[in-house]
Design a protein that fits this description.
CATH topology of the largest domain: Aspartate Aminotransferase, domain 2
Organism: Oceanobacillus kimchii
Largest sheet: 7 strands, mixed
Distance between the termini: 53 Å
EC number: 2.6.1.9
Subunit structure: Homodimer.
Cofactor: pyridoxal 5'-phosphate
CATH superfamily of the largest domain: Type I PLP-dependent aspartate aminotransferase-like (Major domain)
GO molecular function: transaminase activity
Number of domains: 2
Bound molecules: pyridoxal-5'-phosphate
Number of helices: 12
Length: about 375
């Protein structure tokens, strides 16, 4: 029993080593995980306090309409309740999009490197993949992506800031793309790192959903909100796209704890501001450090930096892990001689800089 033909070519998601295993393998008591772009400040204390006081009816199915969170979020974003869908992480919405919009003979257009799940789920639904390399600074080449669209294109996957490069395209570039993109092509704008953008990089993508009825914006509580372990994300689009996706969505796809936690997290915007400010400060400082070291890096508007390493990223990864720092080697992301580093707390980043300096010195 092997399943569909396409599955012979695909592998299950291989996660990085768990912190506990690294602690044991390297006999370390202090580990700094900078590999999955999680929030180093955790999540809002208001969430943990409110959840302690909650009485969950775990024997009852969750609210399949995610009503309370839907009300809170649609008010905050000034959108209609019919214009939003929730998923078990925005990653589930990526799956729903593939299942809903890809038919045999379809193709999808995306950047490379980008978030790998677009390709994975598109392949499973039988799509042909058209990948357009990002430019030297890690930006999507939107003009080349446009030129690749044809009559069989079902979805264009856009990711801004792009994971793993970190580069975010401008509002002008995006609206110009939408003006030229055929209306029959679904444009997915994945803004998983939206809360990390500096104000001048904001796309105001939600305002575009009426002018461009073929756009869906994906956001998540996993990154800046720090709720990755609970799995909840959302998509915002014109009501007809949402209605289509809702037919494919499982009836109870987000769980009761995640719904509550996300509602409380939303109320603490101070936490998000703090996360954004600390991240930006530490990002800039890390960039200054790399410049002094003579290492390059890609532009970043997110909570991670793709660093150009003088030798294989795997080598740097292996060196760092001995000191308790877990980063993502670029070889696993399709960009050799890089590492993707989540921006951590100031004191951890200082220690990381010491270890990187030492590594560079030993390289000679
Ligand atoms: C982390 C990430 C996601 C997935 O987030 P979940 O909501 O946890 O599923 C989606 N897109 C990008 C680009 C990401 O980096």
């Amino acid at each position: 029993m092997q399943g569909k033909d396409i599955l012979k070519q695909l592998s299950p998601y291989k996660q990085g080593k768990q912190t506990k295993d690294i602690q044991i393998d390297y006999q370390l008591d202090y580990i700094v995980k900078l590999a999955s772009n999680e929030n180093p400040y955790g999540y809002s204390k208001q969430v943990s306090e409110a959840l302690k006081a909650e009485n969950f009816d775990f024997h009852i199915y969750p609210d399949g309409y995610t009503s309370d969170l839907r009300t809170a979020l649609t008010r905050k974003l000034n959108i209609d309740e019919t214009e939003i869908i929730f998923g078990s992480g925005s990653e589930e919405i990526i799956q729903l999009l593939c299942r809903s919009f890809i038919v045999p003979g379809s193709n999808v257009v995306m950047a490379t490197p980008t978030f790998p799940q677009y390709k994975h789920y598109s392949l499973i639904e039988g799509a042909e993949i058209k990948e357009i390399p990002t430019d030297e600074e890690g930006y999507h080449q939107l003009d080349k992506m446009l030129a690749t669209i044809d009559d069989h294109t079902a979805i264009v996957w856009l990711c801004t800031p792009n994971n793993p490069t970190g580069a975010a395209f401008s509002k002008d570039a995006f609206t110009s793309f939408l003006d030229q993109c055929p209306k029959e092509v679904l444009v997915v704008l994945d803004e998983a790192y939206y809360e990390y953008l500096q104000p001048d990089k904001e796309l105001n993508a939600l305002q575009l959903r009426n002018t461009y009825s073929n756009v869906i914006v994906l956001r998540t509580f996993s990154k800046a909100y720090g709720l990755a372990g609970l799995r909840i994300g959302y998509g915002i689009a014109n009501a007809s796209i949402i209605e289509t996706l809702d037919k494919v969505r499982g009836p109870f796809n987000t769980n009761a704890v995640a719904q509550k936690a996300a509602s409380y997290a939303l109320e603490d915007q101070k936490f998000i501001q703090h996360t954004n400010q600390e991240n930006y400060k530490n990002l800039i400082e890390f960039q200054r450090f790399l410049e002094k070291l003579g290492w390059g890096y890609y532009d970043s508007e997110a909570n991670f930096l793709l660093v150009k390493t003088p030798t294989s990223g795997v080598k740097v990864y292996e060196y760092l892990i001995r000191f308790g720092f877990i980063v993502r080697p670029g070889e696993l992301l399709g960009i050799p001689k890089t590492i993707r580093v989540t921006i951590g707390k100031e004191k951890d980043m200082k220690k990381l800089q010491k270890v990187l300096e030492q590594f560079d010195h030993e390289l000679g």
